Predict the structure.
Amino acid sequence: MPAMSRGAPRSVTSRVLAILGAFSAERVTLGVSEISRHTGLPLTTAHRLVGELVRWGALERDDAGRYHVGLRLWEVGSLAPRGLGLRETALPFMEDLYEITHQNVQLAVLDGAEVVYVERISGPRAVSVITRPGSRLPLHATGVGQVLLAYADRDLQERVLSGPLRRFTGNTVTDAGELRRVLAAVRRDGVAMCDGQVETFSLSVAAPVYGPADTVVAALSVVVPAEGTDPRTIVPPVRASARGISRALGWAGHRSTHR
Amino acid sequence: MPAMSRGAPRSVTSRVLAILGAFSAERVTLGVSEISRHTGLPLTTAHRLVGELVRWGALERDDAGRYHVGLRLWEVGSLAPRGLGLRETALPFMEDLYEITHQNVQLAVLDGAEVVYVERISGPRAVSVITRPGSRLPLHATGVGQVLLAYADRDLQERVLSGPLRRFTGNTVTDAGELRRVLAAVRRDGVAMCDGQVETFSLSVAAPVYGPADTVVAALSVVVPAEGTDPRTIVPPVRASARGISRALGWAGHRSTHR
DNA sequence: GTCCGTCTTCCGTTGAATGGAAGGCCCAGT
DNA sequence: ACTGGGCCTTCCATTCAACGGAAGACGGAC
């Protein structure tokens, strides 16, 4: 389903990037011809470019002649401010939150019109979730997404509201009017409670994380089973942790209106 | 000290990679002209390539017109098997180890003739260390390095032993013969104890992590203050955690000779 | 044995990448 | 207010690196 066949990229740079983009969570290793097929590049060209990427360490080659993303690229990737930087400061708070809830704790940021999960703490007692660091989901159907959208600029909000809202389950908000009401509620309460909108058996409680400029830079959430503890009991710890991260990031601390 | 001026890369691919390589922990944001200077590329060329990288999401541009590594690249980087894959399985064990020791817990892998730190758990009570995920150090002077070298193939061992051994402190092993003895001891004990060889005030206890093929794929270590608790007391937990990670990675479990 | 899918090398052609020159912008110094 | 110097950006004629077809090598399946 992913990996739309693109119309043969022209510049060398875009070709190189297309090769990197051919790797995904589902396909962590690829052969030259697979890369060629996924990117639409001629086999010879893919072969040559892959060779250069290996020489640098962006890709690595296993004994079977298949390729995977290399350590060097991982190193460079870790320099992304919204990746590692955020992660480093958030992790301790996320661990505390995990100790309290023993459920999946997730941190996500906004990129384009999607949620990107940056970090997750999971454990044996937590419900399984489909997300992992690096995965993307649409904004309207997840707790973190609703938080990020609620505090995003008008432009993006309108763009999402006017676009199609993909349905995942019977609970997914797919009506623009209803989503508008949800977003208003998130802004009012400073928290999103999103029940079974991606997977029926789980719900998430999400709160915004502020940066120094008093803008929302990320969202923190806990995912719990749909049946069981009252989700309202985990609102305070989620809020507290989100606030802790915000402070650690240099947030001045106004907006203390929410109790 | 870093960023040696390279003699003007020729192919487009290598130029693109040179740009990515210009970013480092010390320089997470760069302007076009800085990139040009660091890579030796003509300003115009750097400008054009950076533009393409931004369009794809490999780099991002802030309001000031400076660039930093983008989320998209972080995503792809997270696919590195020895980065995220390892991390995911190791993290729970590392957390347990942290709970026991309340000291820095580090996970590292071998790349070329260097140690690359993949993950670190730190806390308020831990001594500060210079490493962070993504940083590199030579093999001979760190606990994890000595472990990785001890179990590396002969080729690499000879290469390191015959090369210059950089001195960090008065304790650093810089003599090839002595290093040989240290490595033998590591193989015998299944653990490396490395005192003050990078920084005088700390020492580390490191143990090997095995993969399914019964080869060493990583090293786990705890860094403790040089003065204080007897380092021998943390050997058992470090060994146990390293073993736990090995098992979780699919290690069959022979070599159980070490007690 | 043959077939089919894969990876790899070679090399003559060509069009994409190149980078100098020039223009715009902003700040600091005078 | 003017000037100089640092940046970033655009333009476009030249050229050299990227291209990719063809052909060979390998390896497994039937």
About this structure: Chain A touches chain B through 49 residues (CB under 8 Å). Chain A is about 40% helix and 20% strand.
